[in-house]
Amino acid sequence: AEWSEEIPHCEVVLCSELYEPGKSSMACSHPLGSFSYLSTCTFTCEEGYERLASSSATLQCGASGQWNDSQPQCIAVSCPTLQQPQDGAISCGEDFTFGSSCNFNCSEGYLLKGAITVTCTSAAEWSEEIPHCEAVQCPSPVVPLGGQVSCEAPSHPWGSVCNFSCDEGYDHQGAPNMQCSRSGEWSAETPTCTATPEPPLNPTILGLAAGGAVSLSGLSLAAWLLKRIRQKANKFDLNSTSDIEEPLQTYRNSIDSLI
């Protein structure tokens, strides 16, 4: 009066236990028991990582004891591939994934415009605008007043030289030339041209020159006056027998009356 076997009973179906994968978090719900039928687990990737498109974010344990999909994996996001800049170079890590950085530099005679380093962010974008290299150029030099400047190249690239000179009557103050450096700055300040001062006259020589000029002028005037008086006197002849008398000469108290 016994059953041939023990009385059977029903147990909930179990699925394989899941583990939290790297770079992600896992949240599960077990209504009938741990990792059993109808248990669900949802996976969330950490910042900078994304789930593979081939897997589902949420898994559920089925009646057959199998999860409805494979356990998802999270991989780092990737930023756009960078190219070596023209007239420059780039140095990066193994790839262009989240957290990786790239450094830029330019060839001699060129300046880097932009950030030296860019980093791949969690949004799969580079942290800065991609830099580029530009040829070094110095600003146009200032032409000094009373002088002129002569340059090797109109664009004033790195290494070019500008020479300065002053006009006649001006003295040069400062460097005779300046060179454009690799930083885009001139190697020297712009020179100036100052008017050359007249040499001072010796007071003794100045006095003698003035006195001599006055003496010579006085003697010349006296000789000229005497000559004019004699010329006018010759016009009168006291022994003349002519009935017509010459009119009297009127003299004035001025030099004009003798002319």
Automatic annotation (TrEMBL):
<dbReference type="GO" id="GO:0016020">
    <property type="term" value="C:membrane"/>
</dbReference>
<dbReference type="InterPro" id="IPR002396">
    <property type="entry name" value="Selectin_superfamily"/>
</dbReference>
<keyword id="KW-0325">Glycoprotein</keyword>
<keyword id="KW-0768">Sushi</keyword>
<feature type="domain" description="Sushi">
    <location>
        <begin position="136"/>
        <end position="195"/>
    </location>
</feature>
<protein>
    <recommendedName>
        <fullName>Sushi domain-containing protein</fullName>
    </recommendedName>
</protein>
<dbReference type="InterPro" id="IPR035976">
    <property type="entry name" value="Sushi/SCR/CCP_sf"/>
</dbReference>
<feature type="domain" description="Sushi">
    <location>
        <begin position="77"/>
        <end position="135"/>
    </location>
</feature>
<keyword id="KW-1015">Disulfide bond</keyword>
<feature type="domain" description="Sushi">
    <location>
        <begin position="13"/>
        <end position="76"/>
    </location>
</feature>
<dbReference type="GO" id="GO:0007155">
    <property type="term" value="P:cell adhesion"/>
</dbReference>
<keyword id="KW-0812">Transmembrane</keyword>
<dbReference type="InterPro" id="IPR050350">
    <property type="entry name" value="Compl-Cell_Adhes-Reg"/>
</dbReference>
<keyword id="KW-0472">Membrane</keyword>
<feature type="transmembrane region" description="Helical">
    <location>
        <begin position="205"/>
        <end position="226"/>
    </location>
</feature>
<feature type="disulfide bond">
    <location>
        <begin position="106"/>
        <end position="133"/>
    </location>
</feature>
<dbReference type="Pfam" id="PF00084">
    <property type="entry name" value="Sushi"/>
</dbReference>
<keyword id="KW-0106">Calcium</keyword>
<keyword id="KW-1133">Transmembrane helix</keyword>
<keyword id="KW-0677">Repeat</keyword>
<dbReference type="InterPro" id="IPR000436">
    <property type="entry name" value="Sushi_SCR_CCP_dom"/>
</dbReference>
<feature type="disulfide bond">
    <location>
        <begin position="166"/>
        <end position="193"/>
    </location>
</feature>
